[in-house]
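Q: Give me the 3D complex with coenzyme A.
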Amino acid sequence: MEAVVEQIFPSLTWRIRHIAMYPDQPYDFVKLENDFEGTHFGLYLNHELTGVVSLFVEGTVGQFRKLAILPEAQGHGLGKQLMEYLIDYCQVQNLTKLWCNARVNAKEFYLKFGFVATDKTYTAAGYDFVIMEKEF
Ligand SMILES: CC(C)(COP(=O)(O)OP(=O)(O)OC[C@H]1O[C@@H](n2cnc3c(N)ncnc32)[C@H](O)[C@@H]1OP(=O)(O)O)[C@@H](O)C(=O)NCCC(=O)NCCS
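A: Here is the predicted complex, encoded as structure tokens.
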């Protein structure tokens, strides 16, 4: 399997987000109001867009949102490859911190990359979330 990551146009994220994260919600549910202010990365597996993640920077702090790998491609290290690319990118940009609203069922995934769970938790759209962060 050959997978490469590159920066993509915001609207390319929506289909992957919808299928991988919120298939039971209307398509527009996955669009973020500030999508056009973000930096978006796509993982291409054999030239097909298979995973996405979106980064929003304020000052030296980055928030990533909507990390998603297509269901049939999950569990093969692609999420790891995309996350490692994102972390490298943040370091090159000299960010001091990266954080996310993590689905609790993905918490262990983020722990592998050095993210720490905070005590901030909430529930939205039927999912439990915990804010996780990583300092550089
Ligand atoms: C979460 C997600 C991005 C992970 O991507 P993936 O390609 O399936 O994960 P990888 O195959 O790269 O896994 C890397 C490692 O994390 C582990 N892992 C992956 N998902 C995990 C999860 N939900 N919980 C615990 N561990 C997980 C893998 O076992 C693997 O461990 P290893 O390196 O020790 O073998 C992907 O499953 C996904 O898109 N899920 C649906 C949407 C979602 O939940 N997004 C995150 C919202 S916060």
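A quick observation: The CA atoms of residues 61 and 95 lie 6 Å apart.
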